[in-house]
Amino acid sequence: MTESSYFDADTRVEQTGEGRYQGYIDPGWNIGDNPNGGYLLSVVTSALADVLPHPDPLSVTTHYLRPGTAGVACEVDVELIRTGRTLSTVRARLFQAGKQRLEVMAAYGDLSVPAGITSDITIPAPAIPSPEACFARDGKLQGIELAFAEKIDVMLSPETAVPGGGKAEVSGWIRFHDDRAPDPRALLLFCDSFPPSPFGRLGVLGWVPTIELTVHVRRRPAPGWIKARFVTDDLADGRMIESGCLWDSQEKLVAEARQLGLVRSGD
Amino acid sequence: MTESSYFDADTRVEQTGEGRYQGYIDPGWNIGDNPNGGYLLSVVTSALADVLPHPDPLSVTTHYLRPGTAGVACEVDVELIRTGRTLSTVRARLFQAGKQRLEVMAAYGDLSVPAGITSDITIPAPAIPSPEACFARDGKLQGIELAFAEKIDVMLSPETAVPGGGKAEVSGWIRFHDDRAPDPRALLLFCDSFPPSPFGRLGVLGWVPTIELTVHVRRRPAPGWIKARFVTDDLADGRMIESGCLWDSQEKLVAEARQLGLVRSGD
After folding, report:
1. Which one of A244, B33, B85, B222 is at 20 to 30 Å from A180 when CA atoms are compared?
2. pTM for the whole thing?
């Protein structure tokens, strides 16, 4: 953990009581006028890392109750629900100005300790053009400002970078702009950093609020670029299910993600 | 809702205080010595239906902290986190003998009210043999007693019903044995009623405990059989991700599910 990295500095929390933490929501992670949801969650996981005996987030579900506010403080409270030898289950909440923004439910364990049998069953990484042959994620895709492009490099595969190009899929690469190595906590952020996958089919979408996002971290990632693919499974009456996978530079599956989001308007 | 159905009778709860309910865990829903997890969740959703202003479970995440105990009472407590015009977010917990068994986090809404744009993006139903050409789920597949086969008909596609048959996939059909019509609450149970999908590749697996299961209900189901497919995405060091889909008798996608489970031992 490099203390001087953007990510570590901007998600730092200070303990203010038993299971109580204070942090600050930096405007540098905004998408449009709102802090990126993955960034808000990262402030919560910073508190969880301090509380929990197990190092790795195996399953993290976040309900986004209200948008966050950039440029002001936040409070995080943590309730340990159960902790055993191999697993801790925890609830955490993020508040700003007395209003709850995030509700988080997570199971943490230790990915370096086997919990049963192993197999060759996995999801292989897709072949996509190298990061150099991809296009940087740009606010224009959604018609919004993208402050967080200074913090994270998101490169989109040419096939999927075109609004209305035909596929309800986004693939590409992601890393911290300052080259901080990825870790399980960073993967949670990376699962919420790509443009909404329906835009390739439906065109510019504006802000697609996430109602709930669940991420399963599968392996600790090797250093380097993370490859990603997100697909819209189903979109009806504005309610979208998007499923995603992340792979590390060794082509190992490192995370799976699924979210329920709202697509209010198209082109 | 047929009051005389097994499902409605066996998941009935009685209010004992503000957000407090009491129920009973019927032994008829056991898989081996443990109550089926989907059945335990159904007792919780019975309480949620009483508390929440919105009818449909859009996103339900359950952490299974400890196995349930059949033949004794349970308590459910419900905490409303946020309720708005279109969405309610809620936490619920199931206890038996003072010990917490389930931790549930859910968002409820109204699937009959559009929340934005619609599209033709969905997951089409796979072609599988008719229920009559399938095999009934049988405890022998896992080397356990299967009491709940008296309550639910689970029919497995011949291609995927063979332990060690090659594919880490289970597909088939499901309905209540007494023909109660499926509804969103029943879909949550149906997402946790098939044998673990790795058994087609790895053979008899015994009990595969679920750590966490998230279900997204997509549409209210039409009456009749529900078609289902579950696939193991990734299995390493005993930690499995299984993703599933349910379709109704009109071939519409009605639910998606994903769970983190433990595969402790193989054949």
Report:
1. A244
2. 0.96
